[in-house]
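Case study 2.
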Amino acid sequence: MEHNVKNSGHRAGLSHTAGSAPDDRRAGRQPVAGQLGAEYDSLVPPLHLDRRGFLATSLAAGFAVAAGPVAAQTVIKTDADGLTAGVVRIPVEGGSIPAYRAMPEGETGVAVILVIQEIFGVHEYIQDVCRRLAHEGYMAIAPEMFVRQGDPTRYTEIPRLFSEVVNKVPDEQVMSDLDATVAWAGRNGGNANRLGITGFCWGGRVVWLYAAHNPRLRAGVAWYGRLVGEADELRPHHPIDVVADINAPVLALYGEKDSGIPLDTVDDMKSALAKGSDAAKASEFVVYPDAPHAFHADYRPSYREEAAKDGWKRTLAWFNERLS
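Prediction:
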C-alpha cells in the first residue's frame, strides 16, 4: 500500500528547544542468535571476517561534523527525565561495541526497538531519537555499527567518510552485531520477543535486511533507505533481493524529491513486495511530496517539519499496534 501525504500538520508530541523461521543460511545469512533460545541466551554465531580492531570505546557527544552546520532553529532536544539513558557496551565477537540505550526508568520487560544510524554514526540526533522512543515506553538501543572500520564523527568530508568507513562495513557484521544487541537487550530489561527496528538513510536499508534476517522481528520502520544496488562481497543482497524472506511488515517513509532514491526504485520495491512473503505484502510505503532525503533529520537543512512529524506519528502507531 502507498500513501502520498499532503498537509498533515501532525505534531506527534515532539517539542523544540530553539510464522516459522526461514533458513538463515540461505543466501549466506547467519542464523539469528535468538533462534537458539527463547531468551536470546546465546550470543552471536562465529563470523569469519577480517577485523581491523575496535577503534572507539564510547560515543561522541554532539552532532557529526560531516553532516554540515547544525540547523539550531529546528533541532529537537528530548530530555531524559524518567528514563534510564546513556552509553552501554554490547558483547560481540572479539570484544564489545558501544551503544546508546534509553528506556523507562525502573521498568522491565518492555518492548525493544533497535535504532539504526545514518552514515554519521550514533551522534546526538540518533541518541535523541532513542529518548523519544523511550518516553513512549520502549527500550530504544542504537549500537555503533562502524566501530571496527572507524569513527564517523571525526570526518569532515562525506566522500572520505564513505570511502574510508561506510563502504567497508560488511552486511554480515551488521546483522551479527544487531543479533548481539537484541541478546543484550533481552538480558537487561527488554523483552526481545517484542522486537522492532527503525533506521535512517544507511540505517533504513538495514531495516529491510534485518526484517529478512530475524524471524522474531515484529515490525520495522525504514526512513529513506536505499532499496536496490549492485551486489558485492560486503553487500551481497539489497532490500529488493530479500522480499521473499521478510518476517515483519515494514513501514517505508520516503521523499518524492530524494535524488539518491529515485521513485522508480520505490515502484520496483513495491512490485517486489507484492510478490513476497505475507509480511512483505503487509508492508506500506508513504511517499512525501517535495520531501528530500533526510527529511526527518531535524538538525540539517534537509528537515521538513510536516513530513517528519507525520512520519513520526505513523511510526509510533506502527509500533504500538505490533509490539503491544
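The chain has one domain: 2-323.
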